[in-house]
C-alpha cells in the first residue's frame, strides 16, 4: 500500500526582485517527499489558485496540486486541519516558515496540535522503516541529531535539507491545479498590535590604539567640528602655546 504524504506549500518571494516564486523551504520539503519510493504525494496550497508561481512546484514532477480557496489575510489553519483530517496522511511536510506575510513559523506547531500529531522541527532528511521515521535533525554549526518518530508525524523542514530540483517548464504547464471550495475562513488577526518601528540609535565608532593615536583621533574630530587649529612645522613655543590654549578651552586645565 502506497504511503500518503501531504506537502504544504506557499508562495515565496525573491529577496532581490520581490517577484513571487516557489518558497525555498517548501520546495525542499517537496524534494524530500519526492525521494520516498512509491509515495502518494498530496501537494496542498491554501490561497489563490491563479497564482502563477504555484506551477513551479508542479514542474518538480508532481502531477496535481490541490488548492483550498482561501482569500488573502484569512486564517488558513481551520481549512488545513479539516482537509488533512479527511486525507489522513502518514506524513505531513512543510517549510519551517513562510517567505511572505507574518512568517512567524507558528503554523506547523499549531497545525500539529490541532491534528494531534507529534512535530519534529528543523528536519534535514528522513528514512521510513516499518511505520517509523528515522530523521536527521539540523543543529547549529552544521551538526545533525538522529531522531525517531512513529507515524503519523508532522515534519518542519530546515534549510539544511537537500537542494530542490529545477522546475521544468513543460511539466509545470502539464500539471493540474484542482480547485477545492472550502467554508469561509475567518480573518487572521496577528497577536499584539502594530506600531511604527523605533529609530535605532547609531552605533558609536570604537577607536583602538595607543594613547597617542587616540589623542590624534580626538584632535582630528575636534578639528572637523571647527574647534581645531592646524600648525605646520611650528616653533616649539608656538606649538606649546597652541596645546595649552586647547587644554584650557576644553576645561582640562584651569588658567
From TrEMBL:
Source superkingdom: Bacteria
Keywords: Electron transport, Transport
UniProt xrefs under InterPro entries: ETF_a/b_N (IPR014730), Rossmann-like_a/b/a_fold (IPR014729)
Entry keyword annotation includes Magnesium: no
Pfam families, sorted: ETF
Keyword match Transport: yes
Electron transfer flavoprotein alpha/beta-subunit N-terminal domain mapped to chain residues: 8-182
Listed SMART domains: ETF (SM00893)
SUPFAM superfamilies in the record: Adenine nucleotide alpha hydrolases-like
Protein name as annotated: Electron transfer flavoprotein beta subunit
Source organism: Plasticicumulans acidivorans
